[in-house]
Amino acid sequence: MENCSAASTFLTDSLELELGTEWCKPPYFSCAVDNRGEGKHFSGESYLCSGALKRLILNLDPLPTNFEEDTLEIFGIQWVTETALVNSSRELFHLFRQQLYNLETLLQSSCDFGKVSTLHCKADNIRQQCVLFLHYVKVFIFRYLKVHNAESHVPVHPYEALEAQLPSLLIDELHGLLLYIGHLSELPSINIGAFVNQNQIKLFPPSWHLLHLHLDIHWLVLEILYMLGEKLKQVVYGHQFMNLASDSLTNVSLFEEHCETLLCDLISLSLNRYDKVRPSESLMSDQCPCLCIKELWVLLIHLLDHRSKWSVSESFWNWLNKLLKTLLEKSSDQRRPSVPVIQSRDPLGFSWWIITHVASFYQFDRHGVPDEMRKVESNWNFVEELLKKSISVQGSILEEQLRMYLHCCLTLCDFWEPNIAIVTILWEYYSKNLNSSFSISWLPFKGLANTMKSPLSMLEMVKTCCCDKQDQDLYKSSSSYTIFLCILAKVVKKAMKSNGPHPWKQVKGRIYSKFHQKRMEELTEVGLQNFFSLFLLLAAVAEVEDVASHVLDLLNFLKPAFITSQRALIWKGHMAFLLMYAQKNVDIGVLAEKFSCAFREKAKEFLVSKNEEMIQRQTLWTLLSIYIDGVQEVFETSYCLYPSHEKLLNDGFSMLLRACRESELRTVLSFLQAVLARIRSMHQQLCQELQRDNVDLFVQSSLSAKERHLAAVASALWRHFFSFLKSQRMSQVVPFSQLADAAADFTLLAMDMPSTAPSDFQPQPVISIIQLFGWDDIICPQVVARYLSHVLQNSTLSEALSHSGYVSFQALTIRSWIRCVLQMYVKNLCGPDDLLIDKNLEQGVEKEYMEQLVKLTRLLFKLSEVKSIFSKAQVEYLSISEDPKKALVRFFEAVGITYGNLQILSDKSAMVTKSLEYLGEVLKYIKPYLGKKVFSAGLQLTYGMMGILVKSWAQIFATSKAQKLLFRIIDCLLLPHTVLQQEKELPAPMLSAIQKSLPLYLQGICIVCCQSQNPSAYLNQLLGNVIEQYIGRFLPASPYVSDLGQHPVLLALRNTATVPPISSLKKCVVQVIRKSYLEYKGSSPPPRLASILAFILQLFKETNTDIYEVELLLPGILKCLVLVSEPQVKRLATENLQYMVKACQVGSEEEPSAQLTSVFRQFIQDYGMRYYYQVYSILETVATLDQQVVIHLISTLTQSLKDSEQKWGLGRNIAQREAYSKLLSHLGQVGRDEMQRLENDNT
């Protein structure tokens, strides 16, 4: 039955061979074609990929489709296929050696690019013939060789007699062939590279062909010997060497001798590679110089292991171990002469290196395909001995060597089954050297210095050690101790997976036994670091609670002085175990209780320490920051929170916050934000799970318990953190951004978990917090802007507040936004004064705050209330939401337009109330800019925005509710105490800001005066005072009309769109000029008379002149012409007179204006007697413009002349009459008639 089963197995395996293999071409070693891109690791013509190895092992026909003809051609000669080897074996082997010789002679030819093609073809042809012959020998043995009974006395045919001698003859010939070709290691050095011609065909030199032919011969000889043994089932003796040597040569002895020699050759080739490789690159470099040599290793592994299973022979590892042991032995007396002497500068390192590489070859199956599921034969027995030798060298173990050895060992742990003995051997070494740093002087120190920076980095190191795949650059990145930890983790994990907890108990016993009080007292800082690394790794791969408990017990053995000096490291170790508990979802209660108490004590010490004690504070802060960072990681990695998590948040934080400086506060508040975010995230997950359908009672109870735990932790945060934030709202100790962020996080926590908030915030904790940090006018605008941005960004919170009973949420938020925009320069008031008002004002605002304002503006414009205002006003706002100042201007305008469009009185009243709510205490917002410290950018913003407000909201300010605010704005901005002091100069930035914005104020106030529900004399008085103050302040130094074009009062008149306000404003301006700028004090003319005359002239040029204005201003101008002799004044007064007369002609048809005539009549009565010459001269000017005006004055002039002469009592005044006659001469016939009457008058 067993034979039938074996036959069936052979048949099945033979049918599984690849059908697409090209059987007509015998396999051979080749690395000329790279098939690895197609998923193959070896060439398609190789012994593995072609299935030749499999056919050999399964005892199948080596080449089923070859040598089927009656004759065949070998070495250029035709032979009979079925008898050639029996009849002509010596001749064939002779021809074979001759071909070898021919190939060797080709090596003497110079191989340049011109000859390489020819040489390649010749060498390849020779090789193909030789390989073909050896394959023929295999096929002949399988198909044609018959087994003869040597004890039979029956006469046999001569051919049969020759055939019976063939096995022995083959033994002799193969032995002779091996002696002829010698060792692989004796071949001349060759270059594996190839020439590539224009057709991308690789051309190899003869030396390459010779090497690969030698590889073919060595392997095919083994195949032939193996097939011969399988065919004959008996030992075959060689005849030729029986009589020449005392040893008997058999097929078995030749096979084993050749195997040994071939392995020695392969070891020698590997040794040549190893001598050129750095230890740091040993496992990254390829052991084999050629892919074909790698294939030969794989072939030997399969053949020798297969042979050892079915016969009494050694496995591959035994063969290799035997040769490596001789390499490790100092004396080589026991080596047989047939084995070449192999020497190495580093036999230990080479042994590790070659075993590791060869172990990787076990992954290839009989077809050369990697198979991870394939059972791999291990070689642990030899490796254990090798490891003992590696770490037992007295006083001469170098870290650089040890890293390489252990890296190899770690790689072997990947390939083979777990071996606890390896861990035991290594632990014996490292337990004695725990205080060593395991560093290499010429490599950067990357080990424990980086590993121990933080608890998280300690855990990361442990995770790295536990990874299934390690970094190839492990030599440079890790110490030998770290590599040992990797081995420990890998072995324990694999052993526990296959054998349960028993291996862990073995390892635990070995490791725990090495730590006792004396050993713990001997630990240095480095030793303590290695101690924590070891036990953290044990906790990661096995029982975390058991390991952590043991560590706490062991740490109690440390000396108090050592604990004090290494407290930071001990805290990091504690926190690392806490983190591991959290990651494994284990309750942290035991560790948290002890650790949090230690934290409270250190926080108290930090609080009472003096700022001058920098070293002590720095030491304490190092410990506190370890705790803070670690607790943050605990919360972020915990799957769910337990009551023990609350213990980590004790009153130590309350003490710590009061003692922190800015940089330290940043760390603590960052921790707070991270914990708040984690709690909210976990709460949202719980809510989602509770809302699911079909939640059973057990799950619901579990979720409710988790929610209570969350609430307890949240309450601890309110208790220990929020009270501090509340107390620091107005201080500048806490960074603005973090204060706002933390407050916003608490607001969101109050939204999610309102019951956790303090009782004084109930029943509306969210509104209470927003009032503290978002709507309170005493809070720094930087905090408010960032805080409200967070609140508005949370759509759930924003919508809930907008639709809640608290209707003022949006209005108060708008008010805070207005304050933030108006106070954007407040922080810069402490800087140097900037008088360059044309400079880009945005440079005066911090970039971060400006970005925050833009964000707040964008979010605010999404509020329904703001959208409604812009919609009703039909004002576009989307494009300006990126510029806060433009957005505020547009908002003020939209509110004014919306109010103006309202028709119902109740709606208007409600809108006024809402608008005033938007503004709040707006004058308090701008008060910082109006102090003694002048900042031009702030003043520009203040006066500009308030001017736009006054003009845009003029109709609102016309109401009795809002008029008081307008009065305060005028008093505060336009008529402060400093302005009323005429002798005192205003600061240039303030004057510049008023000049730019004054037209807005004047226009707005005029609209209020025109539309006021209750006309106010006080408001008109304020308007007059403003005009009076600023007409003079902005008059140019030189009285040129061209310099008056930008006078703010004239701009106000010029830009007014509606008629009633302009007439009202102009009337007020004229009245002020008449009262304040054209009044004479005795005989002295008013100051800056020329400039005011120029102003009046420009006023008449730019506006329509009313007769009322002429009545007010003309007397003063006429008085200037009479009393002032300054040419500039006379010229400007004359031009004004001409403009007024011409203005009065418009619409008066033929008759002159009665008001104008009245003014001139009064003028004649006042000055005609004393200043008759000037009066007549002025009237001559008038006559040139309008004769009718003067004609209507003739009677008055004549009467004035007579009264003058009568007064003086000297008779006729000849000079005056001549002057009068000159005037009358300009009046035509009427004048001449009057002259005649004067002549005829004898009175």
Automatic annotation (TrEMBL):
Organism name: Macaca mulatta
Stated name of the protein: Protein MMS22-like
The keyword DNA damage belongs to this UniProt entry's keyword annotation: yes
Statement: the UniProt record of this protein carries the keyword Nucleotide-binding: no
Any one annotated GO CC term: nucleus
Chain ranges of the Protein MMS22-like N-terminal domain: 26-731
Subcellular location, principal: nucleus
GO terms of biological process kind: chromatin organization; double-strand break repair via homologous recombination; replication fork processing
Alphabetic keyword roster: Chromatin regulator, Chromosome, DNA damage, DNA repair, Nucleus
Subcellular location, record wording: Chromosome; Nucleus
